[in-house]
Each structure stands twice: as structure tokens, then as C-alpha cells.
Amino acid sequence: MTTSKGSWSLKVVVPSIIVPLLLSLLFLKLMPKETAMKSYEIFGVKIEKNPPQSKLTELGVTTWKTWEGGPMKIPWSFETEETMYLLKGKVKVIIEGSGGSFEIGGGDLVVFPKGMNITWEVIEAVKKHYSLKK
Question: Taking every annotated instance into account, which residue ranges of this chain make up the domain (S)-ureidoglycine aminohydrolase cupin (predicted)?
Fold first, then answer.
């Protein structure tokens, strides 16, 4: 704190990631509930909550490869863009180098960009369909 002629001023240093994150949260809070959490992007990851069956059919999700696993924590690097549809479970995704994280779970359609480095922490056993961009 500094003082100048009896007045006080406070300088606050905020990491550059905080302001966009707070604005995103505020934006989601102000949106109508039916829109708020349907589709959004965080740390460059696109997430759509409970997409319509027509979209899943159009994407051919049931023809994609399947992966499943119980509680574990593994580092992962996306060598190509990966789209996944989580059938069940819950995962905490920790973004390497940012200190940020978010959770995804059953019913989420998620697109991870090529080159992203994360730690994949399975909280509840997961089963997912996934497709790698060619």
C-alpha cells in the first residue's frame, strides 16, 4: 500500500489467467440455466453437456473406439485432436503449466486440441468413446 496526502491506494497483481476465467464464470452465471452449461470452452477444450442423440448419431459416436478405466492419475499429451463422448464416470482434467483444472463426466462430448498436455485423474470409473482426428 502507498499513501499520498492522506489517501490510500492498493495495487493488486492478478495472474493473467484469472481475469478471463472470472469473466467466463460471470458470463455463465448470467446466462439462462437452460443455456448456461450446454456448450462452452475452457482452456481451449470444447465441452458440450448432454448433446442431442441426433448429433451423436451424425458423428458416428457408437462406431468410435472405446476406452474404460477405474480411478487413476496419468499424464497425457494429445498428439492429435481427440473428440470423446463419456458414457459414464467422472474425470478431473488438470492442465499442465497453468495450475487450472476442470471436471468432465458422463454425457459430456469433449474436444481436446492437438498438443495439449494434461493430467487425467479418474475420480469415478470412466467409459468413453473416442475419435482421433486424421
Answer: 57-130
Q: Is position 8 within any domain?
A: no
CB atoms under 10 Å from CB of 114, counted, come to: 12
Cα angle value 124/126/127 (rounded, 5°):
155
How many Å from the N-terminal Cα to the C-terminal Cα in the chain? 55
**Chain position carrying cell 492437438:** 114
State the residue for C-alpha cell 440455466.
33
Does 117 fall in a domain? yes
With a threshold of 0.85, does the pTM exceed it? no
Here the CATH number for the domain that contains residue 110 is 2.60.120.10
* Single-letter amino acid, residue 18: I
Supply the range of the domain harboring residue 124: 39-132
Q: Could you tell me which residues are beta bridge partners of residue 7?
A: 4
Each of the 134 residues of the chain gets a pLDDT tens digit; together they read 444 555 555 555 555 556 565 556 655 555 544 445 599 999 999 999 999 999 999 999 999 999 999 999 999 999 999 999 999 999 999 999 888 999 999 999 999 999 999 999 999 999 999 999 98
